[in-house]
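Protocol step 4 of 6: structure prediction from sequence.
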Amino acid sequence: MAVFQASMPLLGWVIGSSFKNMVVAYDHWIALLFLGAIGAKLIYDGLRKDEGEASCLCPSNHLLLAGMALATSIDALVVGIGFGVLSINIWQPVLIIGVTTFLFSVTGVLLGMRVGERINKGIEVFGGLVLIGLGLKIFLSHIY
């Protein structure tokens, strides 16, 4: 998970750096749109789950794990595009993202075995609100 999570912002940064001159005038709108959409999706997913819905996947092979890692790191690609557009030095964020993802993945697996679905819904909604807040902060800092 950490390798994908750290690689996707790097790829996004390359993409964002390539066309930043074309979007520099409205990059804050792009950040607001992307982060808002990802945040709204997290909130939607967190609120729509039924209490009895089972969401546990027990991956049995490396291909399934790689697919899950790729699917969960698409948002990191979008963040990397934002980093490229905003001309942020990418190496420190990539290192922080990789280490943090590794530590949180290990902690999440260990915690998930103990508390599971009891806190899942609230965490997704909270994460969505944080992403929307970050998008609003970027937007407002460019406007004012």
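Step 5 (inspection) to follow. The chain has seven helices and no strands.
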